[in-house]
Specification:
The protein is mostly helical. 60% of the residues lie in helices and 0% in strands. It contains twelve helices and no strands. The termini are close together. It binds a DNA duplex (13 and 12 nucleotides) through α3, α6, α9, α10 and α12.
Length: 220
DNA sequence: TGCCAGGCCGGGT
DNA sequence: ACCCGGCATGGC
């Protein structure tokens, strides 16, 4: 069976039945989402939450405050999430870029079309495809599918795509076979993370995984 | 006790 | 166009 849209829908339904709505980042401000997207690079989310709490206490979940603090003290605050010196620099790069190009307001990205906004974000040093897509989808509301380590692992393990596929190819699997809709992409990605955390670990076998039996035939 | 986590960059082939 | 080393803490 090679009906990829049908498989993707079936996977979504199975995950939704198992885990329910994820409603990622509902009450969080745009800045929390964007900052979180950078802090979570190659890092467990639980560590990011600790760093975010420090930022919140310091009143730094605010564009102006974040723009004014130096990278060095900022780095100390986000220590728990690892790579803290790089990430402090990346946060500063992003904030400075936002200030100059968007009047310090992510809403300006909503006005631009998706492709333009994405290219603009990718030009910031420290913002790669996943971080850009996370910000665009979860903070701005653009319909762009986020590919992360979980997305890649689930897609490969269930043979939705070739083992060697890169970011853009993985992204296309979902974007070319799902309704282009931010709500759908939001929930789908969150559900992939949910199953990834519980079952789709690097070496672990997928026991009790809601996706058992959803292997896409790749022979043809 | 190692191994790993919701990447990205810069330099080298 | 890839491939690799570097970046770093904390949880299991």
């Amino acid at each position: 069976m090679h009906d990829t849209p049908a498989i993707l829908r079936a996977i979504f339904d199975a995950l939704y039945r198992a885990y329910g709505p994820q409603h990622w980042w509902p009450g969080e401000s745009r800045i929390e989402i964007a900052v979180g997207a950078i802090l979570t690079q190659n890092t467990n989310w639980t560590h990011v939450e600790k760093a975010m709490a420090y930022l919140r206490s310091a009143g730094l979940l605010d564009w102006k405050a974040l723009r004014e603090i130096d990278a060095a003290p900022l780095a100390e605050l986000i220590r728990p999430c690892g790579y803290y010196r790089v990430k402090a620099r990346r946060l500063k790069n992003f904030v400075e870029w936002l200030w100059r190009n968007c009047d310090g307001d992510l809403d300006a990205l909503k006005q631009k079309n998706l492709a333009v906004a994405r290219e603009a974000l990718l030009s910031v040093n420290g913002i790669g495809p996943e971080t850009a897509d996370s910000i665009l989808l979860y903070a701005v509301g653009h319909a762009t599918f986020v590919v992360d380590a979980y997305t890649a692992r689930v897609a490969r393990r269930h043979r939705l795509i070739d083992e060697a596929a890169g970011y853009d190819a993985l992204k296309s699997v979902f974007e070319d076979n799902l309704e282009s809709d931010a709500e759908v992409y939001n929930e789908y990605h969150a559900l992939l993370v949910a199953v990834g955390k519980r079952h789709c670990r690097p070496r672990a076998r997928c026991e009790g995984c809601p996706l058992e039996g959803f292997d896409h035939d790749s022979d043809a």
